[in-house]
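User: Sequence for SGNH/GDSL hydrolase family protein below. Tokens please.
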Amino acid sequence: MGEETTSFTHRYVALGDSFTEGVGDWDPRSPNGVRGWADRVAEQLILADPSWGYANLAIRGRKMRQILGEQVDAALALKPTLVTIYAGANDILRPSIDLDALLAEYDAGIARLRASGAAVVLFTGFDSSKSAVFAKTRGRTAIYNELVREIADRHDAEIVDYWRMREFQNWGYWDVDRMHMAAAGHTLMAARVLEVLKAAHSIEVPELEARPAATRLAQLRTDALWARDYLGPWVGRRLRGQSSGDTVTVKYPELTHPVWTKETTSP
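Assistant: Structure tokens for SGNH/GDSL hydrolase family protein:
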């Protein structure tokens, strides 16, 4: 690992859950069958400067303590110069949560990452006010966001302000499961992250086609199918103490160039 790590001048390591793993941005070329905004950010960094290496340690379904316990040490071993981390979304969806205690642990994890010398990028949580199912978590997310902002200020970390990105209120940016961004959403997020990093990029955010308004009956049918195919299984896993990531492995555990950049760049 040491030789492979030091062969890259710049080292980007992405940490988190399904958001960072790339769920919703389906791509059979990619490990786990998903690409995602972090892979797209890495691609732009590498295309601009092949001395960048990239690792993505995120796994869907992970809660904050799992991310801190499983991913922070692994990230530090890769000697990162840049870390992105988003943790806590899966905790917010649980029946009960002690946000103050949880974010105190997050603060300690971010302190360790910053102490390594790496630049760190954090995310606020998404404003779910337009979601019929997840709108009730809006208040928790708002508190989470304020605590994350304090952590960012304390440790001189950057913030990608997902909460204020009103574009994502357009459901065209979301996958059919209504829980994860689709390819268009991940593409837009990659552009926003690169803007925070002040990095030039060639990402073109796709224009969304206007969707005709559905009749009430058609919407009810669509909602019923969604509840059967996505909401029901999601609730069932939680009742059984299971996670969608239980059998998933890390996409890029070592620093590399993503598969779609290898024809144009080399380590």
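The domain at 2-206+250-260 is CATH 3.40.50.1110 (Rossmann fold).
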